[in-house]
Amino acid sequence: MMDSQRTSSVDAVQSYPNKSQSPRHWLRPIGFAGFIGRSLQVVFVTFIGQGVTHLKSLGLTQPEISLALLFGPLSGAFIQPYFGTWSDHCRSRWGRRKPFIIVGTLALVISLMCLAWAEPITRFFLSPYAPHQASYRACLIAVTMLSVCCMWVAIQPVQIGLRTLITDGCSDWEQTKANAWATTYNNLAATLANLAAWSNVLPHTTNKSPRDHTVFIDLSVLAVIVLIVTVAISCLAVEEKRLDRGVGTLDTRPSSISRLGAVREILFGGPSQIRTVYLTQFFAWLGWFPLLYYMVIYIERIYILESQTDMPLKGAITEADSRIGSFVLLTFSATSLFAAVLLPTLVSLRSSFTLRPIWIATQTIFASSMLATLIFTSTMGTVVLFSLVGFSWAASNWIPFALLGTELSSCSSRRQLSDGSDDEEKYHNPTAFHADSENLSNNPGLVYGLHNFSICLPQILVTLGMGVISIISDSDSGEETLELAWILRLGGIFSFVAVYLATKLHDV
N or C: which end of the chain has fewer CB within 10 A? Predict the structure, then answer.
């Protein structure tokens, strides 16, 4: 029995991809995988930038929209860790991650298309005269909510699968560069999507029936094309070595007890570096979430207030008119793309530029910018301010994942050394083996799932808090703008806590 356990463990380690391969073989394909796996940027840009407007056009009330927004962080907090640990133990002949990536992508494509065409789908099943029926709205809301829920659930296995491919396939010294490639692709996708939304090249701008064909539908089609193409390239380019099928199959999932034990070990018994990244991300996202979801609404309200008081506007802002929200998203994502290229280049060229101080500096910029909304109250000033935090967004999309990936890869290397040099002592005396290396190297998907939990939990708290504020307050547009401004400033204060926690990290 002892020999079989030892052989199974050694086989599992040997079945991992060869992390000593040159960066040219792994870096670019896996970085391209990270383009979707990091945040599924095109889908997120579509929903964050145009989702609320689309839901309002379908007739959803504010409480119903708030519920739809909650599906995202709830599924990310509780479902992604489940898919992460399941994929860690997958023994499919296609690999550990690819089955989840492929199935999740198919489900995401279907659900996103159903959300985009929720009204035509409802009319098709309820007859052309359905809008006049009493049951029409109930069916439309049901289709919409089900599509939103399925979309967020489908995102989780794709995101965790492609994210973990980077850690599985790169050594610890490749993690920083691989994650930098992933961040660059993310921001490139966001910039192109926001450029398409802001420009007049999308079909919705010339369609005579904007209710049936909106910018959300156009971006959804674009997102589906990007998903299919990039997932196909990622799955074909990345050679994932599967674990020994003799251990199990795709249905081999860890028990609840073992899963909870792994979670406890990672949170309380693993390296302090991972726990510090989790805590830093928690407080950072108390500031990031209000900005990302309400950036468009905030700038549009400021623009409307300026228009009502006949304040002079200049240049592109005047021409943007109702597209001011898309314009600020474009400048924000363009700055992030520039920073995503610049910061890794500086790290590679100068040894004095390392991940830890860069994250501290950029997070300080973000926190200060949120408090600076006290000073910058004009449309142009706010656009400049929100564009500046694009530097912080690029670092936030890169550095935490690079730190986690390096820690996981280092633990995997320590485990392989232990497996090869001290097997007998490990199996007869478990205390001689480092439990943190065992749990981390065996559960990279769970580690990233818990990281996503630390990001999604503040989103849930902020959404619930803002829902309470909207219920108890009955204010006009000007007062709502002031309330949102103070929410952004409160997020800036929490972000300074994240800055302090980031100083506790050790550099790599």
Answer: N
More confidently predicted of 249 and 230: 230
Task: Assess whether pLDDT exceeds 80 at residue 387.
Answer: yes
Structure tokens at 322: 């109702």
Query: Which are the contacts of 176, defined by CB distance < 8 A and separation ≥ 6?
Result: 344, 347, 355, 402, 406, 508
**DSSP character string of 298-309:** HHHHHHHHHHHT
Residue with tokens 């390296």: 271
Contacts of residue 246, Cβ cutoff 8 Å, sequence gap at least 6: none
User: What is the DSSP code string of 200-263?
Assistant: S-SGGGT-S-TTTS-HHHHHHHHHHHHHHHHHHHHHHHS-PPPPPGGG--TT----HHHHHHHH
Nearest of 287, 328, 350 to residue 498 by alpha carbon: 287
Mean pLDDT over residues 434-455, rounded?
73
Q: Which DSSP helix (H) or strand (E) runs through 11? A: helix 2-14
Residue with tokens 């002031």: 482
Contact between residue 382 and residue 299 where contact means Cβ atoms under 8 Å apart: yes
Sign of the four-CA dihedral 199, 203, 207, 211 = negative
pLDDT on residue 395:
94
Cα–Cα distance, 450 to 88 (Å, whole number)? 14
**How far is 312 from 320, CA to CA, in rounded Å?**
14
Closest to 37 measured CA to CA, from 186, 152, 250: 186
Q: Which two tokens stand for residue 36?
A: 């979707």
pTM confidence score = 0.75
| pLDDT tens profile 255-273 | 555 566 667 767 776 668 8
What is the 8-class DSSP label of residue 354? -
Residue 252 tokens, joined: 């081999």
For the chain, counts of helices (H) and of strands (E): 21, 0
| Cβ within 8 Å of residue 276, ≥6 positions away | 501, 502, 504, 505
What is the chain's length?
508
Q: Rg of the chain over CA atoms, in angstroms?
A: 24
Distance between CA atoms of 136 and 21, rounded to whole angstroms?
58
Contact between 338 and 390 under an 8 Å Cβ cutoff? The reply is yes
| Token pair 């794709």 in the structure block, residue | 158
pLDDT at 258: 57
